[in-house]
Amino acid sequence: MVKDNNGQYEIGGIGIASLVEKYGSPLYIYDTAIIRRQYERLIKAFENTRLDIHYACKALNNINIMRYICGLGAGLDAVSIQEVQLGFKAGFDPKRIIYTSNSVSVLEYEQAIETGVHVNIDNLYVLKQIGDKYGDSVPVSIRINPHIMGGGHLKISTGHADSKFGISRHRIPDILEIVKTCGMKVSGLHMHTGSDILDIDVFLKGAEVMFDVARHFPNLQFLDFGSGFKVPYKPDDYATDIELLGSLLTQRFNDFCKEYGKELTLKFEPGKFLVSQAGYLAAKVNVMKQTASTVFASVDTGLNHLIRPMFYDAYHHIINASNPNGTPHVYTVAGYICETDTFAKDREISEITVGDILVFQNAGAYGMTMASNYNARPRPAEVMLRDGKDYLIRKRETLDDLLRNQVDIA
Predict the structure, then answer these.
(1) I need a labelling partner for 195 at 20 to 30 A (CA). Which of 22, 145, 207, 212 fits?
(2) Which of 57, 70, 182, 338 is catalytic?
(3) Which domains does the chain have, with CATH numbers?
(4) Catalytic annotation present for 70
(5) Residue 28: which H helix or E strand, with range?
(6) pTM
(7) 357-360 and 279-290: which strand pairing?
(8) 150 pLDDT band (50/70/90 cuts)?
């Protein structure tokens, strides 16, 4: 998001005010140029090894965005059979889709296998059931819990000892027993320690765990390190040093491949890294309200459209697109939901008046995919910007959409 020659904010070369005027408010806006930039940055950082990127579509699953990322050359990371089906709609080849679910029935794993995608198994029970049924006819990968605490919040830390994700690194003998008994083909190993990881040592420590486990499996094709790269949320915020990580991990990975005796593929499954900074949520100010100690700017959106600030205590930078050069004042930005849905408390923002457009940055990941119809509010429209043009990629919901699957028995 930059200012044009007149000092007005624009995204992808298109003014924010004109987008809101055309499509209404609240509005999700996605700039594909930023997605491409992030993808190419990752490719370049790991250019000295065999790299394969699979987009974690749980971050943003509009099929137009998924199709765009597929066109860049990425595969897909799907965590449900429905995401697998969305992947097919978006044009992903089954061979380029990895299904990594948790806490689902064996039946769903079987459904995924029947579609031709690669399944990644994260518990011993399912591993045994799949092994008994398919034997060596279906290659699988195994998700390892490395017992490493990583991530910017406990709710997004997935690799620690008490996490529900993955099979403990200490259960390798049990894994090997099942694999041997069932004659299974294990073609890959996977781990994911969490999200918003700033310290690259977390990735490097996790890599050593993976290498230790990999030595037990002689026929691997790939090692999948998940993702979790931190992106900047605040001005001058810290972020994962992808270039340094690429340099260090590539060298160590290549050394391990020599020890292992074959060239393996290094996989990553970025979601937030690709789409977070590409997304914006624009909302209009409905009400200005002053209490004894707080000035509220209340907008026409809420936790039903962007729950991350309330659920993860996440920071999203907010700008006043209607008054970009105004004098900063301190505001608490709140939503219109019948809950305490505070987006920002005591935040300096250019002077706000009723009708102004506020824009929440870094809204591309886990914004719309975690949206709901709480308070019977419709979900926003989504717009994709590509090559200087804007495209409506999801219509704004109406009351008919809220009633569509209800059954009236009156």
Answers:
(1) 212
(2) 338
(3) 2-30+279-403 (2.40.37.10), 46-275 (3.20.20.10)
(4) no
(5) strand 27-31
(6) 0.94
(7) antiparallel
(8) low
